[in-house]
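As a warm-up, study this chain.
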Amino acid sequence: MIKGLGIDLTEISRVGELAKQHPQFLNRVLTTGEYEQYRGYTGQRALEYLAGRWSLKESFAKAWGTGIGKAVGFHDIEILDNQLGKPVVTRSPFAGRVHASVSHTGSLVMTEIILETD
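Now compare it with the structure written out below.
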């Protein structure tokens, strides 16, 4: 049974500007594991990864029904890419299954999170 659905659309350049203007932004948004994956990328791909994690966590909070920073924070959710590049939610406050999807264009990232129980 679907318990929540959240989608988000984020401008990659906006997240890049936030990271550039506020060095603590990376530590605020990314978990240690996510930061390790982020460090493996450069240029546009690094910005896509960072914007993707921001957007995925926003989508999760929307599916959770609270918005980010209220009942759930950025570090309460960890989303790592598996060997094939698929985003996998490895930590969250939700006890059921969490499905994640991310897609990029040159300037936008779109994400979706589905929260599911038996």
